[in-house]
Design a protein that fits this description.
The protein is mainly α. InterPro entries: Membr_insert_effic_factor_YidD.
Length: 82
């Protein structure tokens, strides 16, 4: 099921997205966010996360860094070892 959901997203990333100018407000892009969400959380929860992300993508959104919940992309604090 995951591969079936990822197929149109990958098609968009490789065939359509390069032809369009980059106007992304978030990092990672919405399509990459969807790939990561579906891969990490499965078809159902990943699709819900991706749809919620698309809902946050609009001209009045601040944008910025918005990682998929549960990924290692979250900022980490550096601690010095003694």
């Amino acid at each position: 099921m995951r591969k079936l959901l990822l197929l149109p997203i990958r098609f968009y990333q490789y065939a359509i997205s390069p032809l369009m100018a980059s106007h992304c407000r978030h990092y990672p892009t919405c399509s990459q966010y969807a790939v990561e969400a579906i891969t990490l959380h499965g078809a159902a929860k990943g699709s819900v996360l991706a749809i919620r992300r698309l809902g946050r993508c609009h001209p009045w959104s601040e944008g910025g860094y918005d990682p998929v919940p549960g990924t290692d992309h979250s900022p980490q604090t550096t601690q010095t070892r003694q």
